[in-house]
Amino acid sequence: MVKSDDGSIKSVTDLNAKKACTVKGSTSEKNLRAKAPQAEVSLFDTYSQCGEALRDGRVQAVTTDAPILAGLVSRSDRAFKLVEAPFSEEPYGIGLKKGDDVFRNFINDRLEEIYGNGEWKAAFDSTLGALGLKSEQPPKVDRYPSSPSTGTSTSTTTGSGGSTSTSTPSRTSSPSSTSTSTSSSSTSTSTSTPTP
Fold first, then answer.
1. Cα angle: 168, vertex 185, 149; to 5 degrees
2. C-alpha–C-alpha distance, residues 174 and 95, integer Å
3. pLDDT of residue 132
4. Where does the chain hold its CATH 3.40.190.10 domain(s)?
5. Low-confidence residues of the chain: pLDDT under 50
6. Is the dihedral of CA 26, 31, 33, 36 positive or negative?
7. Is the dihedral of CA 29, 62, 132, 68 positive or negative?
8. Where are the beta strands (DSSP E) in 17-152?
9. How far apart are CA 116 and CA 122, in angstroms?
């Protein structure tokens, strides 16, 4: 994201020798440092603070996931614009309590329903699309086999016909809109790409 009148940044390599902002400790920081090693990186606690730094000229660009930047652009009174130059891909997911197959399947079914009936496209077009982001195919819903309940014992049949008893420790994953787990405790739902 850059100021609306800035045409000097068209790709991540253009961030070299420029001041760019992101949130400290984020994957965006790691990606920025790897792809534009000569960028002067300013780190803040929030992306809103990065937006303020862009507005007052302390930095020339802000980088993070496109939906976050789109929100900043929408609240900028046309002071900012998105640069369509993604330089990494970050999977998003919905974190669920491990073993909650009923809720996971409900979410998966609902996502597939809104992808199929046009609700997803309408929501995208009226929000991110209105800010100039291009609509792609809806993200694939990853389906996982049913998982054992947390804190229970399960029996597994081995190839020789014997059976092995295993105990599953009780664990939960914290709800998070940015879960990237590929276990049965999480459903991968979308991908967002950081852009300057």
1. 35
2. 6
3. 74
4. 2-81
5. 149-194
6. negative
7. positive
8. 19-23, 40-44, 61-62, 64-65, 80-81, 90-95
9. 11
CA dihedral 175, 33, 24, 18 (to 10 degrees): -130
Which H helix or E strand runs over 189?
Answer: strand 186-192
| Pair 76, 68: CB distance under 8 Å | no
Residues in the chain: 196
**Sign of the alpha-carbon torsion through 83, 63, 137, 127:** negative
**Domain spanning 2-81: CATH 3.30.450.20:** no
On whether the pTM is more than 0.90, the answer is no
- Alpha carbons within 13 angstroms on the beta-carbon side of residue 125 total 6
pLDDT digits (tens, 9 = 90+) for 21-45: 999 999 999 999 999 999 999 999 9
In this predicted structure, what is the pLDDT of residue 150? 45
Half-sphere exposure of 85 (CA within 13 A, CB side): 19
Quote the strand ranges of 24-152, DSSP E. 40-44, 61-62, 64-65, 80-81, 90-95
Please, are residues 49 and 68 in contact by the beta-carbon 8 Å criterion? no
Closest-CA residue to 54 (of 93, 2, 114): 2
